[in-house]
Each structure stands twice: as structure tokens, then as C-alpha cells.
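Look at a sample.

——
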Amino acid sequence: MKVYEAIARGLSDLGCTELFGVLGDGCVYVIDSFRRDCNGHYVAAVHEGGAVLMAQGWARVAGKVGVAAVTHGPGLTNTITALVEGVKAGTSMVLLVGDTPVIDREHAQNVNQPGLVAETGAGFEMLRGPETVAEDLARAFYRAHCEHRPIVFNMPVEFQWQEVEYQKPYLRLPETRSAIASSKDMDDAIGIIASSHLPVVIAGRGVNDPEAEAAVLRFARRIEAPVATSARGKGLFNDDPFHLGISGTVAHEVALDVIGRSDCLIAFGASLNKYTSGERGLTRGKRIIQINPLASELGRWTPVTVGLVGDPGLTADAMVKWLDEAEIPGSGARSDHLLEELKTYHKNAQKKLVRSTPAGTVDLYEVAFALEEALSKDRVFVTGSGRFMFAFWNVISVPNPRSYVDGNGFSSIGLGEATAMGAARAAGDRPTLLVTGDGGFMLSGLSELATAVAEQLDLVVIVANDGSYGAEHIALTMHNMDPGISLLPSRDFARIAEAFGCNALTVTSSAELQAAMAAVATRDRKRPLVIDVKIDAASVYGGAAIARP
């Protein structure tokens, strides 16, 4: 077969069922063979950056390596921001990129592709020749899985039409589950826990399966500690009455008080970056135990007292065993008083958080609480980047961490839209909710609506339309400067979305919000629903610097 056919067949044999891309002469033959010869599903994006983001959204929800394909030159340069997003978010994906002929130095699309990729932080894997297709492609997938970042697979066009005898790629991923049965670090960790009066357990997306979640919760209950999550650990511990919610810059008042007063933090599969640590305010002066399968992650963002290299679930169970053998009592931190505080907060949250806004607008928290009730709880939730995030992160629930995806690793607007479309492809029969801002929606969301319509995605898009670049509006206002330059022209996103083939509504009042929620419940699940929600720019609250989870 031809090399391009061998690449397509290799993708299929490596388990790739979804390929996102934009056609170009450096990748069109691979894409066509994948679709035609391998019965793979090809999602045609409008923009190359969108294709990469779709693959990342798919990977985050599916828990597998996502795959995209673009052409050489401008095809690759159009993916740069999306690749940086994947690096910063730690997303495993392979990007197939055509490359111009080596002999044609004057080719219009000839650029230094390895150099471009290196600057993004992504990995680079070269197709060395026709006879190494299987080995090189398998290595790209292996690296994407183990390095938790995008790997660019470079395909010189002069190879693609050469004949090759097909060899099936061989890929065996390493077993990463391990636990420390005994060590000085484990001794120190147990000693710290034994002397703690107010420990708090924080879990991140490294607690990535129900068994690990159950083990970490057993540990938390054994030491009588309340639990919290990082933003990307959202969905863990949903049914635990001592769940504090998200730790860090978006934490609610009870969580901030408890984590702030704690004397010990035990972090399972959480990076403890500056957002989870509340700009270090929640970790400073505390004894911290961090558990992660990768030694490189221990103390990477926040200095820790003890770091344990091990699987979160297995390590949690090992720690319970040690505590039981030493007959160490619980801390008592899961108190009746804390339980009552949490119940009172959740009972009064909606009344306390929702504010009145000028006529023709609605409050973001009002929107968030309405969506929480209107949409099926078994859903995928995606956010772009913007100050609207603060109202939705603590209100919209998900069943597990893989059901929450943010396009916010690079703190760039305009990345959530395409990410949500890839997530929706992986969601199966579940609906996908995207919350984005008007600036980000204009930047890239509108063009990719065509993709969402073509793919018949069950996608509900909430455009938080405050007619401004929100963070800049806050920054100018905080410095007593005129925020006028941050304001955007009035746009009717509902009518624009309808022109793309979506169902669409505009919300300017509480009554219209309730009508929109009824439309959510009765929506056509094969047609995206876009809801343009008018927000007052001066009434939105949130940090001037957009927080990244």
C-alpha cells in the first residue's frame, strides 16, 4: 500500500476512531484513507486551531489520545495557540502534520516546523521514512500518553505516495499503578496526619477513576477530614456531606474558611498550582502531603512537606492500613458544626449570590442556577476563558472529572468553543453544555458553529454577552479609567447562530430565562442550541486577572 494508506491504517490499528482536521495537500490523502478505507469518523473543522482543540476536548472526555490532522506551513502555524493550550492543560494528543518536500526550498509553505513546534512546548516526532511508519507512529502515541502533552507527527509529502509493506504498529503502554508500602516518607506522612487537628483532603484529576475516588474518600473519612477538589477534579466526592467544593481562587466562603484554618493538606493527584492554592494563601505555613504517580509533579508548584510517589487510590488505602495498625484516632474535623455550616451555605447560596441587574439583562448566577436544574445531571460541562467562569464553576455540577473540560490552560479567550465540540463527540448520548463569553465566541466560536451543525451535536451554548472584554473592563474600572475601549458593539448572536443552522434564543429577563430553560428541556438533540444571554458589564464580578484552574 501507499505510505499515506499505511498511516491511516496505523491510526485505526492504534485505536483511533475519531480524526479532527482541515484538508490540505499535506494531509488530505491520509484523512481520505482513514475515512474511506478504515471506516473512521472524520470531523471537518473550519480552522486548524479548532481541529486541534476538538481533539483535545475529545481526549479529555474519552480519557484517550486525541488525534488531529492538518497540512504544512499555514496549516501548522494556525495551530500554535491550540498546541500551547494542550501543553499547559496536559492533554494527550497526536497532531499529524504534512511537511513540504525537502528538495523544494522555495516552496511557498516551507517553514521551520520543528522549530515552531518546539516553541509551543509540544513534542515533535518525525516520520523518518516509508519503512518506519509503524514504529514512528506508535512512538508518537506512546509519547502523547506518557508525556501528557501534544506530540506533532511530521509527515514529509515526498514519502506519502511511496509503496510500503504494511506493518501493524505495536504499542504497549506502561503500567503506572504503584504504591509505597513502606518508606521514610510514608512514616513522616503518617506522623503528620496523626498530629493534625484540622486536615483537609484535596483531590485533582489524577484521581481519575471511581476506584481511586472511593479509596481517597475512605482515607478522608478515616482521618475525619473534609474534602475539596481542584477545578479539574470537579465531579469528585459529589455525595459526600463534607465536600467543600473547589479549593482556591473560586472557593466559596465556607471552603475558604475551613481550608484557610487547616493545619494539614493532603493532596491526591492535584498539582496545587497557584489557583488551587488561592495564590498560595491557602497553603502558606501548612504541612502538606502530596501524592502523585509522577515524581516530577511533587512540589512542582507548591513546596510540600512530604511527597509520595504512587497511585492515589492505592496510596490512600495503604495509608488507611498504617493508620489502623497504629490505632491513630480521627481528627474530629468532620464535625456537626461544619456539617451545619455547609448545609446553611448551600440552602442560601442562590438567594445570596443572585443579584439584581439593570433592565434588559440577567445575573450570571441566576443563569447558572437555572441551567443546573434544567439540564440532565449526566452531562459534560465546558467553559471558555473569561470572568463569567466564576459564576458557573461552583454551581454547575458534573458526575466525574472527565465530564468537566475547560479551554483555559493558556487563559486565552476563544478556545472553549471548539474544545466543546470535541468533548461533545466523546460524550455519546449525554448533552454537552458550553459557557463562553461574547468576545471569545466572536473570536472563534462562530466559525466552528458550522462544524457543530454538520456533526448534529447535542450542544447547548450559553453566550454570556456583556458587550465587553470582561477582564479589561474590570482592570480599567479598578484604575478609575474609562472602560469604554473594552466595550463591544451590540450583536444578535441568536440570529447569527440561526443562520448557521442552530436553534437559538435571546434572554434579556428572568421570564425569558425560564422560557429558555424550557427550550433546553425540549431541545432537538441533533441540533445545537445557542442562547444569547444579555449581561450587564458593570454588574459582573470576578478577578481582574482571569484565573486558570
